[in-house]
Amino acid sequence: MNFNNELEKEDNLVSEIEGENSLSIEDFIKELEAKEKDLHISSDLAIEIDEADFDDTNSEFIRSEFAVEPVKMPQTAKPSVNNLAANNKFVAELEGEILQFKKQVVKLETERAELAETIRRRQLDFDNFKKRIERERGETFLSQISNLATQMLPVLDNLNRALDFSAHHSEGRSQDFHQFFEGIFLVNQQLNEVLAEMGVSQIASVGEHFDPYFHEAVATETSGEFPPNTVTGELLRGYRIGDKIIRAAMVKVSTSAPVRPNPTNISPENNLKPSEDILETE
Amino acid sequence: MSKVIGIDLGTTNCCVSVLEGGAVQIIPNKEGGRTTPSVVGFTEKGERLVGQIAKRQAVTNPTNTLHAVKRLIGRKFDSAEVQKMRENVPFEIVEAPNGDAHIQVLDRVYSPPEISAIVLQRLKLAAEEFLGDKVTEAIITVPAYFDDMQRQATRDAGKIAGLEVERIINEPTAAALAYGFGKQKSEKVAVYDLGGGTFDITILEINDGVFEVLSTSGNTFLGGEDFDQRIINWLIETFKVENNIDLKEDRLALQRLKEAAERAKCELSSVMETTVNLPFIAADSTGPKHINTVLTRVKFEELVLDLVESSVEPCQKALWDAKLQPNDIDKVILVGGQTRSPIITKTVTEVFGKEPSAEINPDEVVSMGAAIQGGVLTGDVKDIVLLDVLPLSLGLETRGGLFVKLIARNSTIPLRNTMTFTTVVDNQQSVEIHILQGEREVSSGNRSLGKFELVGIPPAPRGVPQIDVSFEIDANGIVNVSAKDKMTGLEHAMQITPSSGLAPDEIDRLIMEAETSVEKDKEVKDLIMLRNRLDSLLKNTRRAMVEYGKSLEVKQQQEINGVLGEAEDVLSADDPKVLEEALKKAEDAANKLTEALMVMA
Fold first, then answer.
1. Residue B344: exposed, middle, or buried by beta-carbon count in 10 A (0-12, 13-18, 19+)?
2. What is the b/e burial string over B182-205, where b = at least 16 CB atoms within 10 angstroms of the residue's CB?
């Protein structure tokens, strides 16, 4: 029968939601029962419906839902032969009607299960969303400072470039120039102090092992002074705030040899002479 | 059911997203980026670096830093694309025993899926952190023109990364899904995808959830990076004319120019002119030199005009191949960051006669579509059914090297088709079944998927024996081919995979390896960190000893120097315990030194 087939398809869903029937469905069942009573469905009639529709093991659910009706009745309760024709017609009509209702139950059950599932998923999503927002809120301050610093750094870079240039070309300049230069130098220092107060610190580079988590290599050079894979020069200063890298330092890195076809026996070079050159203070 | 993530595994960048609360969320990587560069670096110390970090060390480690591996995936070593790529990349592409293109890194050979898997694994971890839950399933997108081998290889990459690839979908299909096209009526959609390094144009027909690829075209070596280069060149030339200094020689200047060019390009998408301001870019005897140039949109468009125009021809070809006129196209979608430039919008509007849709972030739209498809599979999205279609026709080689299609492109799968063939010479006892994929009439123009022979056909005049050849494609896109002699019932069959790609047991091995490598990577990283700490401590203490050591007692000096010497000896050790011990001793020594100095001060 159609009904059974349909039920079979929905079986998974149905068994999944069993045991957590909400009020609304129970209400509906009660309504259905009331309607059945109105239609004068006697227990006699239930037998045939039972035999016709409930022979499938998959209909456990319906059986439990309609347990108010006696599902197993003795065969002797059949109506008398006289009224059989009229009754049969009546029975068929009612049978059809009940079938409709049952289909509706299944349909609503399915819809309800889908909705419940959707709500469950949304709730999970929302919980996770909340957790993430909470986590992100802790980082908001850091990320805002980091954003601000990201935009400020090019200005600081250019100020540094100006100072570097002036420092190298200050010979023969006037006293006024030197005083002015001194002043700008202090402004630069002030700016660095402000950054430091915000928790922004410079990334150490020259003389350090090259580490792509902190350094961005833009060039390599052979160096007699530094062991291989060491930062030999800083082209652009890097900054960090806590563990967060605002900008990687742009650096030059030493290589052991220009061509290195088969690097088999690599061990970290450790000829650490206490060279003053490593001190690189700026 | 856990979440199914959507991954756009791009040539230059990847993007991962997931459906959450009915809306697509882009998942940021550990460094906070919404896209991750498709770059993997292997260091000599055995560390594997991914994305931005790998990119930062590319200069120091060019032969072991791999990028654009997507151009190699599922391809043969001797194919034109692979040969072209060999000329352009610093890493070594080698031929695998099965003829595939593999990559030699340090002392190991990797298949392209293994490299892609390393990137995928990183995206998976980011997703797990974002969702606070295990992620085991994914949808991955591929270009519409990818053949069976390339799709299979992409699927393998997912598997190695610990992801069950629920579906491989076409990038343009994903873009159309993200826009929600084709839900009610049937539509023809053109997807114009200008990414970092490749240009693809695809024309789709969407009908009741079936996304048919009508045609594809493009240029595999055209992308946003070419646009940046034009601005850089212009800046360099202008500067040279004005100052007679060639900035090409200066690595830092080039790097600053590159960033400035990219920024200028982005700004010109919304304003008519922008200022490129690079103070102290160079200096000569006359003093410092600055770049402070106005770049107008008009000038920019003049600089890139030929690049933009070179994308028009593929569009027209795609229309021609689809047998469509521009006004047959209902919707045009823009994908890829470069399409933000107004000149692209203008050109696309001219070609297709309608304004393209660009409301969704073009860097993220493909991944978003993949996430929506993920939502369809988990049941979060209900109003879309996306049926899988065969991307390219499947068939056999017949007499004279002609290609006979058994299953046409765009057929929805799974499906099965049988065709009857016969012999071409009298008393022919065997037939060769050569399976190919492609659209060309001549077999040699199509991709060979495999071949086998059906032997033992009873002697008969040509044309008499009847041989049924069946092609069957299952829901996972796996192709089975069988040939059967009707008279004798003799049958031979094969599954397409062995001639190329990775064998199943090999994949299993790689999955194991990938799982353990995450831990190994961490161990290596920890070891390096430990070593670096010891190294800096040593350096600093030595430095202090040189300066202040003399003021200590000789015994103390000897003691400290002894500890430092020992520490230096174990610096190259690979055992973290040894390093930790040395670090502790060195720390004690350093503390003693500091204490002694404090007392003296």
1. buried
2. beeeebbbbbbbbbbbbbbbbbbb
Give CA separation, B40 vs B16, B105, B220, B309, B476, in Å. 17, 11, 21, 33, 29
Distance of alpha carbon A230 from alpha carbon A221, whole angstroms: 10
- Cα–Cα distances in Å, from B413 out to B268, B374, B396, B528? 45, 19, 19, 50
DSSP annotation of B16 reads E
Give the angle subtended at the CA of B59 by the CAs of B57 and B63, to the nearest 5°: 95
pLDDT in tens, B418-458: 888 888 888 888 888 898 888 777 777 788 888 888 888 88
Chain B touched by A131 (CB under 8 Å): yes
Backbone angles phi, psi at B495, to 5 degrees: -105, 135
β pairing state of B331-335 and B187-194:
parallel
DSSP calls for B541-589: HHHHHHHHGGGS-HHHHHHHHHHHHHHHHHTT---HHHHHHHHHHHHHH
> Distance between CA B169 and CA B373 in Å, rounded?
9
Contacts of B379 in chain A (CB under 8 A): 117
For the ranges A133-137, B248-252, B315-319, the maximum mean pLDDT occurs at B315-319
- Which residues lie below 8 Å from residue B369, measured CB to CB, with a gap of 6+? B6, B141, B169, B173, B174, B175, B176, B177, B178
Question: B411: which DSSP letter?
Answer: -
Which amino acid, A48?
A: E
A120 touches chain B (CB under 8 A): no
Cis peptide before B97 (omega within 30 of 0): no
Tell the burial category of B595 from Cβ atoms under 10 Å away from its Cβ (0-12, 13-18, 19+). exposed
What six digits make up the tokens of B333?
Answer: 């979608």
Which residues, listed in sequence order, are joined to residue B109 by a DSSP beta bridge? B104
Q: What is the pLDDT of residues A259-280, one digit of tens each?
A: 443 333 333 333 333 333 333 3
Quick one: average pLDDT of B477-500?
Answer: 78
Q: Does an H or E element contain B448, and which?
A: strand B447-455
Whole-number Å distance between alpha carbons of B378 and B403: 40
Nearest Cα residue in chain A from B288:
A165
Q: How far apart are CA A174 and CA B437, in angstroms?
A: 80
With CA atoms as reference, report the closest residue to B404 among B389, B414, B417: B417
Q: Which chain B residues are closer than 8 Å to A266 by Cβ?
A: 44-45
Quick one: pLDDT at residue A40? 54
List A residues 138-157 in contact with B (Cβ-Cβ < 8 A): 143
Contacts of B155 (CB under 8 A, 6+ apart): B140, B165, B168
Quick check: pTM over 0.90? no
A 78-117 near B (Cβ less than 8 A)? 117
Any residues with CB less than 8 A from the CB of B446 and at least 6 apart, and which?
Answer: B403, B436, B437, B438, B439, B440
Q: A interface mutation test: which of B107, B277, B280 has the most A CBs within 10 A? A: B280
User: In degrees rounded to 5, what are phi and psi of residue B405?
Assistant: -80, 130
Residue in B141, B125, B151 with CA at minimum distance from that of residue B176 = B141
> Tell me: the pLDDT tens digits for B453-487?
888 888 888 888 888 999 888 766 678 889 998 88
Q: What is the pLDDT of residue B234?
A: 95
**Residues B276, B259: contact at Cβ < 8 Å?**
no
Single-letter amino acid code for the residue at B44: E
